[in-house]
Write a structure and sequence with these properties.
By secondary structure, the protein is mainly alpha-helical. 50% of the residues lie in helices and 7% in strands. The strands form two sheets. It has a three-stranded antiparallel sheet with strand order 2-1-3. A two-stranded antiparallel ribbon has the order 4-5. The two termini are 20 Å apart. The N terminus and C terminus are likely disordered.
């Protein structure tokens, strides 16, 4: 299994931060409320992708899911300390997932529910069980109920690489991102179509696990 944006699979001990995204520090507190988008044309939006809003409340719900899971973990203090940019990282991941999904659709790549189930079963076996796999994804800022969605994106990305090749996939992600007209709330930076992230982070579409580990 490979992360949507490169690197070895989480169950091979990838990194604490995700597809994302460099981690920081924080205390075990509820995630702060997010402000509305600075663009009056999209009030209440954390981002807009292809004219569709990712609302502040949607983003906050994802962040709260992760925080709740962290609080229930034996490694809660460590997890929180490594996820100080959780809100920004989560938003970036949500946008990236939409880009990958559209790229897959445009290039006739389809991942079924059965594909995800089989993938997850194999991942659980290799990681030492369901609890271990959930823990590894949580280290990346992904709550348990988001694992299947993350795997679907991983499978889609891998299928695109197999079909098109890595260099071409980079081009496809960048062009798809541009086509979707992504706008991000200024508090998270400005979206970079070629890198597939907000400019405040240094994430590229395709990365190695070594790159991730250096930023973790």
């Amino acid at each position: 299994m490979q992360h949507p944006f490169g690197g070895r699979p989480p169950y091979r001990r990838q990194t604490r931060a995700t597809l994302a995204i460099p981690a920081a520090s924080a205390l075990l507190l509820a995630a702060p409320l997010l402000t509305a988008c600075g663009n009056d044309a999209h009030p209440g939006a954390a981002a807009v992708v292809d004219g569709s809003r990712i609302t502040v409340s949607q983003l906050q719900a994802r962040v709260n899911d992760v925080r709740d899971a962290q609080q229930g973990s034996a490694k809660s203090e460590q997890l929180v300390a490594n996820s100080g940019q959780l809100s920004q990282n989560t938003l970036i991941r949500m946008i990236q997932f939409r880009v990958i999904e559209r790229a897959g659709k445009d290039n006739e790549v389809r991942v079924t529910r059965r594909d995800v189930q089989q993938y997850r079963k194999a991942a659980e076996t290799q990681s030492g069980g369901g609890a271990a796999l959930r823990g590894l994804y949580l280290e990346q800022g992904i709550a348990p109920d988001g694992i299947d969605d993350a795997m679907r994106m991983e499978l889609t990305r891998n299928a695109l690489v197999t079909k098109l090749g890595t260099a071409k996939v980079n081009e496809v992600f960048a062009s798809t991102s541009k086509k979707l007209g992504i706008e991000v709330n200024p508090r998270y930076g400005t979206w970079d179509d070629r890198r597939g992230t907000a400019v405040l982070t240094k994430e590229a579409w395709l990365r190695t696990s070594e790159d991730v580990n250096r930023q973790a």
